[in-house]
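Late entry, evening session. Most of the bench is empty. Finally got around to the prediction I had been postponing all week. Sequence below, unchanged from the version circulated by S.P.
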Amino acid sequence: MNMQRKSLIAIGVSLLSATLALHPAVAGEEKPAASMEPLVLVNINGQDINNMEVLAFNALQGQPPANTREAQIKLLNQLINTTLIAQEGEKAGLPEKPNVKAALNMARVQVLAEAQINDYLTAHPVTDGEIEAAYQKRYSGDNLNEYKVRHILVQKKEEAEEIIGLLDKGKGDFAELAKARSLDASKENGGELGWIGRHQVVQPFGDAMVKLGKGQYTKEPVKSQFGWHVILVDDVRKQEAPPLEEVKAQLTTELRQKKLAEYITGLRKKAKIEVPGKKTANGG
């Protein structure tokens, strides 16, 4: 390594250390990184590299924040090496190759989309009221029940109807029918799924399950994305509602995902999405 590059790294690491010490990701502050003023750390063949780019590069590597001087030296060296290679790629005209151009475009799309998601969710935070409402809905009434369940999964509705007919006529034991006919891995245990709550299974299954009393089975086949189910409830018990603080993080994540899904649905409805050679339609 020549003296000029050593000097660049030394200066860069010194600045990087100061930058990282103040960075929200390291200091645990709420201040968004976007509000920081970019600071040039190193210049590589005339190309400035600033602190925001170093932090972005570190994030792209999937690495934790560089909190030690050793980690910072390693990070800066990685970025210098990567930049030198990329500069050679620029000289060779690689950005104009179709596959490289497509990858660069998609990388830009991905970064912009993630930034927009962060901005949207920051502007539309999950409130304490929303969390409380979700908690009350999740942990009240029938939602507090747990069901000891067996099921038989088949591909066709007619098969499920046939199994229900056998059960109605007393011509088959549920567990034995599950072992002989079910497509689910639970067949080895006679279709038993154990104790489950309504929200631990797909909605059609859960909706049918909560309508059954102890010892009852579905009189009509239940359709889900997996196929057709015949469901038997062996037992029902009431569970204790967990403290709000215990499930707050989970509920917050679910509510954020719901907000994001609604946002994307709205964008699709407003969008003009065209497929060449086909009739224009919106994204709904």
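Two things to note before I forget:
The longest strand covers residues 227-238.
The two ends are 57 Å apart (CA to CA).
Will write this up properly tomorrow.
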